[in-house]
Design goal:
Strand content: 25-35%
Number of strands: 17
Structural class: alpha/beta
Order of helices and strands: HEEHEHEHHEEEHEEHEEEHEEHEHEHE
Low-confidence stretches: none
CATH topology of the largest domain: Udp-n-acetylmuramoylalanyl-d-glutamate--2,6- Diaminopimelate Ligase, Chain: A, domain 1
Distance between the termini: 46 Å
Number of helices: 11
CATH class of the largest domain: Alpha Beta
Shape: elongated
CATH superfamily of the largest domain: NIF3 (NGG1p interacting factor 3)-like
Strand order of the largest sheet: 5-12-14-15-16-13
CATH architecture of the largest domain: 3-Layer(aba) Sandwich
Mean pLDDT: 91
Length: 378
């Protein structure tokens, strides 16, 4: 039977968590990664209605697009909506996974799906991904630590440093954890008068057998790994090297820009969007008769992409919502704006993405049927 960790691995393959924006909170937010899962409920949000549905369906885990826990919280009590939901889910043993901006940005993710739904071809990101960097961390470790009896045997210090690094999140490559490399060598050092060396003598150049240990670290875990290694290391001033290994994945990034197979007016494109989203109401700004061929899209909120939309030569932007002045700015540049609603521009492509996740898992994947757009037309 699959576990929560298996779901995390499958999501990471389809929408790498490292693609998430720095301000975002994705991955496992609540629950035990070893928890066995037979049913997974997918939703846009974690709400009381979704929690009720999870109970009825017997779903051991939830995958939500919008994170249940967004910012750091000081208390987990029933006094807040987030606290009530988190406590309820924890009491039931249900795990909560968030796939947010990583799923928007991933190749084949929500932005690509929405682009396909409205007929865009030859798409590429409006703004290339700036994925969280990865680093190679290298540390030189003595064979033993005479000051600690448990570490006097050769290799004991290396094992302690490796364990500390892996516990802090180092050494993760795809489905594998605890990945690292070590080699034997010799280190030289000359302690000053104010030093307190764990091995060797002050005032003389010492040579000691050491191990070179190296491992990969995600940028979000770098500080924690460095601190853990320093605490586990016997040296007063351990030698630790950090090498950046940043390589943004191809085809990933914010929004998409593409071309329609046939030129349409802004009004005709709006009709296409309305039908694709199965929306009762959408909002349009700009000249209705503007001829549109190159279109930018962004699921949810397209705020902050006006410059990229203009630079890409778009004649229209399809997104969920924008601020009033952002709409005015685009319209002033002669770029039409079609707002399909935050909920619909994410929910519709999420419904299309859920079967892809199901194909990658030995788990029954259900799309929530209970959640609704919190904004309802009247």
């Amino acid at each position: 039977m699959a576990t929560v960790r298996d779901i995390l691995t499958a999501v990471d393959r389809l929408a790498p968590f490292r693609l998430a924006e720095a301000w975002d909170n994705v991955g496992l937010l609540l629950g035990d990664p070893q928890r066995e899962v037979r049913r997974l409920l997918v939703s846009l949000d974690v709400t009381e209605a979704v929690c009720d549905e999870a109970e009825r369906a017997g779903a051991e885990a939830l995958l939500a697009h919008h994170p249940l826990i967004f910012k750091g919280i000081e208390r987990l009590t029933p006094d807040t909506p987030t606290g009530r939901l988190a406590l309820r889910l924890a009491a039931a043993g249900r795990a909560v996974i968030a796939a947010h901006t990583n799923l928007d940005a991933a190749e084949g993710g929500l932005c690509d799906i929405l682009a396909g739904m409205i007929g865009l071809e030859h798409t590429e990101p409006l703004q290339a991904a700036s994925a969280a960097p990865r680093y190679k961390v290298v540390v030189f470790v003595p064979e033993s630590d005479p000051s600690i009896p448990a570490r006097r045997d050769a290799g004991q210090v290396l094992e302690a440093v490796q364990a500390a690094a892996f516990a802090a999140g180092a050494g993760r490559i795809g489905d594998y954890t605890h990945c690292g490399f070590s080699a034997e060598g010799a280190g030289t050092f000359l302690p000053g008068e104010g030093a307190e060396p764990a091995v060797g003598q002050k005032g003389r150049r010492n040579r000691a057998p050491e191990h070179r240990f190296e491992t990969l670290v995600d940028g979000r875990r770098l500080a924690a790994v460095l601190a853990a290694v320093a605490r586990a290391h016997p040296y007063e001033e351990p030698a630790i090297d950090v090498y950046p290994l940043h390589t943004p994945p191809a085809g990933a990034g914010l929004g998409r820009v593409g071309r329609l197979s046939d030129c349409r007016t802004l009004t005709q494109l709006a009709d296409t969007v309305k039908e694709a989203l199965d929306a009762r109401v959408i909002h349009v700004a700009g000249d209705p008769e503007t001829v549109v061929e190159t279109v930018g899209i962004c699921t949810g909120s397209g705020g902050g992409l006006a410059g990229a939309v203009a630079a890409a030569g778009c004649r229209a932007l399809v997104t969920g919502e924008l601020k009033y002045h952002e709409v005015q700015d685009l319209a002033g540049r002669g770029i039409g704006v079609i707002l399909g609603g935050h909920y619909r521009t994410e929910r519709a492509p999420l419904e299309a993405w859920a079967p892809r996740l199901a194909e990658a898992l030995d788990v029954e994947v259900r799309m929530s049927e209970s959640e609704q757009d919190p904004l309802r037309p009247r």
